Amino acid sequence: MSEVTTFSATVSATTRDGVLVVTIDNAPVNATSANVRSGIDKALAHAETDPGIKSVVITGAGKTFIGGADINEFGKPAIDPPLPDVIGKIEALSKPVVAALNGAALGGGLELALSCHYRIASPSAQVGLPEVKLGIVPGAGGTQRLPRLIGIPAALDLIASGRIAKAGEALSLGIVDELAEDDLTATAIKAAQKLTATPPRRTGELPVAPADPAEIEKASAKILAKARGQKAPAEAVRLIASSHRPLAEGLADERTTFLALRDSREAAALRHIFFAEREASKVAGLENVETPPVTTLGICGLGLMGSGIAVAALGAGYSVIGLDQTQEAAEKGHERIIGLLERNLASGRLDQSGFDAQKSRLFVTASDADLAPCDLVIEAVFDDLAVKIDLFRRLDKVIRPDAILATNTSYLNPDEIAAATAHPERVLGLHFFSPAHVMRLLEVVRCEKTAPDVLATGLTVAKKLKKLPVVTGVTEGFIGNRIFSAYRREAEYLLEDGALPHEIDAALEDYGFPMGLFAVYDMAGLEIAWARRKRQAATRDPSERYVEIADRLCEAGRLGQKSGRGWYAYPDGKRTIDPEVTAIIETERAKKHITPRSFSKDEITRRMLQAMAAEGETLLVEGIAARPGDIDLVMINGYGFPAHKGGPMFVKN
Ligand code: T1G
Q: Catalytic residue numbers?
């Protein structure tokens, strides 16, 4: 093996038996930053001219092949060589080039691999073109080369969804040619040597297999329906469906489209979310905090929320001890959890061995003492302060002094719960969103006395549960429900001022919410908010505008969809505008001598967004939320705010 040749700070190579093995080492994910592109460019020139080099292998250092183009470079002056040029030179090289996928090959990373003449993957490798999740399309040949390898329908599925495929699927699709069970580089060198006997197979020269227009039409329609107004998926569909064009023409169209989308507000919003998700779990002061190992979770209350948490915990590899009030209730909870696991088995999300392993890690009981082995206990019992305090007092006597107590309360004050325990420093909030085994968002509540290692452990457990943790301080409703209350209030002001529920819902749905606020309200039920409003009545600030319309609906028994009537009527389950509700709204307006006026969709949307952003600003000033991006993540992942808009705080700027 020759000595190492350095082509740039992030690209080096050795020559082994006539094969130039090029390694990209650009932490943290080997993104194709300018330095990587220039290094590969120089390595290719060297390979082309050095007669001792017969073929080339390109691989990555660490656990990622190439995580994509460097997103940090977007919006900055372009630095040559552009990635498509480097990729074109790989494909055009007169000597065979083999991609050795040592890990994730995503975005520009997969596009670079597609331009190689052969692709070998380690079993841990993953491939994907997730650009649409950033509001863009692949910009370096993905929409043109992938269909040439795997056909239009399969390319539509991967690119328009942005999903990641594991090595096995990549092999079966034809994205990779071979899996290397061991020593990826040695296998790649052998393949590179063998390929010198035949002319390089250039992906760009392959024909696109003919596809049934009806099948393409059907797939495209499904993608556009799901895109809910986003531009990138539609453009991806157009580029892929027309990939039978001459390569140069398709590449030019793709590049123009990519550049236009990259500079769009929608792409800026999605990049904001991408980085916000990674910032959210970086909490000042926790950088070097040691977190104890957590292997066994206790879950108290095995109802809808508790069983969802249990399924998420079992899926993450934890052992779960479930506690309920009686053995019968515990058994019912066990059945509920197993039922959810069986659904995962039936859907293929879980295989039989996975199901058996998860089932074997579940134990339920009605005896507090059985929670003694738990490293962390999450309570998801009835949202009543006395009930939670009593439970935590009992658990104080049972669990180890270093074990952690987490409350899942939505509206109670976790500081009051913590204050009732012997060790308030070990208490924090873990506010899951229902269904807890599906919803990514997890508000990690930093109570007044929560110790740093306890908070850090909560974040570690959240990530292992595959949740999106966002730290919040203690306030009624934490971040999400505080903002939800503010925009519900604004919607009710709009009702009094002249708008109707279906007009407000239509404006929100046009903006990109999957469902309007009043439709969501009816689905969740009006009684919880009503009980809270009644609880707050005595201490409500008389100078604050209070809208009584929702109270009138509840007093009339209109508690939402499950009672057949709420903000809407539900004859045979279909949501319909109800003149009775309009009459109630008009009566309330008259009582306050309000002359109703009409509102445009834009005005409704603007007022709702402003109400969210204003409450968000307050949460930042109060120190409840650490960053605007955290607030955006909560509203997108917990309340349906359209991700491609970036969140209420992003929109505001
Ligand atoms: N550019 C710049 N930084 C990136 C990056 C990227 N593509 N991907 C990750 N990072 C940073 C991230 O911000 C974090 O930084 C650190 O790396 C670790 O990330 C031409 C134009 C690769 C699966 O969309 O999916 O190619 O917080 O926590 O869990 O058509 O990162 O440490 O300071 O996610 O091990 C397309 C995005 C780009 C893939 C690794 N590619 N990345 O997961 O680490 S557009 C993507 C990921 C493109 C072409 C187009 C994941 C990962 P910090 P992490 P991880």
A: 111, 131
